[in-house]
Amino acid sequence: MHTVVVGTSHVSAEDVLAVAREGARVELSADALAAVAAARGIVDALAAKPEPVYGVSTGFGALASRHIGHELRAQLQRNIVRSHAAGMGPRVEREVVRALMFLRLKTVCSGHTGVRPEVAQTMADVLNARITPVVHEYGSLGCSGDLAPLSHCALTLMGEGEAEGPDGTLAPAGELLAAHGIEPVELREKEGLALLNGTDGMLGMLIMALADLDTLYKSADITAALSLEALLGTDRVLAPELHTIRPHPGQSASAANMLAVLAGSGLTGHHQDDAPRVQDAYSVRCAPQVAGAGRDTLAHARLVAERELAAAVDNPVVLPGGRVESNGNFHGAPVAYVLDFLAIAAADLGSIAERRTDRLLDKNRSHGLPPFLADDAGVDSGLMIAQYTQAALVSEMKRLAVPASADSIPSSAMQEDHVSMGWSAARKLRTAVGNLTRILAIELYAATRAVELREGLTPAPATRAVLAAVRAAGVEGPGPDRFLAPDLAAAEAFVGGGELLAAVEPVTGRLA
User: pLDDT in tens for each of the 512 residues of the chain?
Assistant: First the structure.
């Protein structure tokens, strides 16, 4: 297990994934601790003055007009955490909470939030102890940051509320901290607010979705190529010169991937004498255009994620020269928009994959394959209902593609009168990513069975590698009807775990 060092500059997406998914340890650099201490000195100086400063000596949101005296300021910071830890619904996944905590720590270490160094160190200690606060599905509007989710995390730092230990057992947070020798934090001026004000939850989910979708888009190029091959289609439409004249980089990359998978195939474009085709159907012929547009969407989303990783999101912020200024950088619009955009692209990728699957199962359009790829059609139903499952998933993908960021519900007595709904956009994208994995798994299942039914024809070397790997993974080939759900679950794990990509790349070289 490697260690991620957090300094004053931004961390990388790889760092976030390592901490969130792999449990990497976190260390704070000396320059980060120095920057945190310097910013804290500014906050302490302001706290000693009689003039009110938002977050230091005032209430919050619509209550910011009240000046808070010294004797109540520790209580003020405790209260904001307790009152804002108001989430409801199912627990959020461990990796999401770890990403959220790590990204908040990253901003704390920027030297712009004004917390004490011991608060930052405690955040790192909790991550390293693999203590995970209980965070709930509902509570964030994606403006003023992911307030409720971050509040539940801050509550754990205070030794309050519930958390999950490294063994997965739920326990009072105070007991878990004590078991790992971690002292609860006694919050001081501005610290409660600084722990809550960020886009960390939605950003963490964006970074993880980008990693998952990178694998899935490459996998979609593979499954599209297998479907083209099984349908005895032509690979001439994948020629580089056809994609150069429409210079979208994602389109060219997808076409090149498909061409690499199909290299050496004995099925493509040579067996259409009985039913000549001038052109293949759109779901086959336009696969690079649709997957390519999604790839370009991913590229834009990565740019937004990189910018947000370089940001210090808090309100107010400590600036060089001792200024503490209110701002609106906590608004999640930039992140929310790309989260919604990715859900739209993923829905369309799932939709075109389902159309190819349906074509493989329809004897009137599959160019010689048995109905529903059944062993004895009529006695056997083959993959008929697998396509129903795929269609249900696609239908939900379309519902999930409705933008969350187009909505806004005013809050805090109309002080916070426009919000991003970025957390909601991130949550539905996670569901969409899971659905897309299942949709591609069903296309893979159908396409591999269809290729094997083309007896006497030799598939591409990459296809043969997929067939060997998928069968070794427990996904069975053609034959009489059997309990299908275990096969589909194995195919889902094969795609989602990156095994499909791992089977192909030794043959094709690294896919783009």
Answer: 689 999 988 899 999 999 999 999 999 999 999 999 999 999 998 888 888 877 777 777 767 778 888 788 888 899 999 999 999 999 999 999 999 999 999 999 999 999 999 999 999 999 999 999 999 999 999 988 899 999 999 999 999 999 999 999 999 999 999 999 999 999 999 999 999 989 999 999 999 999 999 999 999 999 999 999 999 999 999 999 999 999 999 999 999 999 999 999 999 976 655 555 778 999 999 999 999 999 999 999 999 999 999 999 998 899 988 888 889 899 999 999 999 999 999 999 999 999 999 999 999 999 999 999 999 999 999 999 999 999 999 999 999 999 999 999 989 888 888 999 999 999 999 999 999 999 999 999 999 999 999 999 999 999 999 999 999 999 999 999 999 999 999 999 999 999 999 999 999 999 99
CA distance 345 to 336: 15
Distance of CA 362 to the CA centre of its chain: 34
Which of these is catalytic: 54, 138, 337, 445? Answer: 54
DSSP state for residue 370 in the 8-state scheme: P
Residue 445 is a catalytic residue: no
∠ CA 44-48-51, rounded to 5°: 115
Please state whether the predicted TM-score (pTM) of the whole model is above 0.90.
yes
Beta bridge partners of 3: 25
Domains of the chain, CATH where assigned: 3-198 (1.10.275.10), 205-508 (1.20.200.10)
Contact 501, 222 (CB under 8 A): yes
